[in-house]
Amino acid sequence: MKRFAIVFAGLALASASVVNFPNMKRVEELDIFWKQLDPQLQALRPSENQRIVNGQEARPNQFPYQALVLSFFEDGNSGLCGGTILTPNFVMTAAHCVLIGTLATHGTAVLGAHNRQVAEATQQRFNFDQVNVHPSYIAALLRNDIATVRLSVPAVFNEFVQPIDIPALSDTRTFAGMTGIISGFGRTSDETGSPASEVVMYTSNPILTNADCAASWNAVLVGAQNICLSGAGGRSVCNGDSGGPLAIHENGRSLQVGISSMVHVDGCASGMPSVFVRVSHYLQWIADNSDVVLRN
């Protein structure tokens, strides 16, 4: 019988040198996060920090849809996650990036960043105070782990800031066997004390069938609402990549098929599949909680 085995893929430490955003913490360092999990999962609290791993640095505008989501909570906790640009007004991320016991009171989205620790001319920074979390989000199991945030003013699209496509309503593909691309500012090493990446990193692996993924994980945790990426070669998302994209590249464009949600307790580089929210499962919810126009 497979044990529950989960580590949050999320909220990475933003060091004090991050411009205007000191003292950001990984969610794994927050007691409040672990208290909300199922008791079977609380016992799996890691004793060491874990980690996109075995990837490479992206070009400055290679992933113009990549966003940083910085959330602030009433209890003084704050954290850094990934996200994706849907429209000039909305960014999509994981629910666990904006709801840890209580909903984030406010936050900041950074678009167009390559090096998160530098105030680059390409960056656009926006406050957000409208946060939409899926009403059936179950924190204990990271079920329905999806959210959107509305930017204070519209983003300006250019070569460094662009929206990502999401599947059409008629797109019934599972995407299994296709090459999935992951990107983010998460940890790049499983070594204790290793910081989150300063620059956008990326890697790729085949997308798995849900049956193969559940065989490695647990059918309770991996369902129709999920999509998984092979962990072959130790390539994976890690802490700080939560909320970021799993994408495929076709017809000269990027299509987001997943939202980074969780990695295995054995570690980001363990070879275990990483688990994402399946975007096509939530198309109507995304449209209802943003101003994105769905394609037929």
UniProtKB/TrEMBL annotation:
Domain Peptidase S1 residues, every copy: 52-291
Alphabetic keyword roster: Disulfide bond, Hydrolase, Protease, Serine protease, Signal
InterPro entries (UniProt xref): Peptidase_S1_PA, Peptidase_S1_PA_chymotrypsin, Peptidase_S1A, Trypsin_dom, TRYPSIN_HIS, TRYPSIN_SER
Coiled coil: none
Signal peptide as annotated in the record: 1-16
Similarity field: Belongs to the peptidase S1 family. CLIP subfamily.
Protein name (database record): Peptidase S1 domain-containing protein
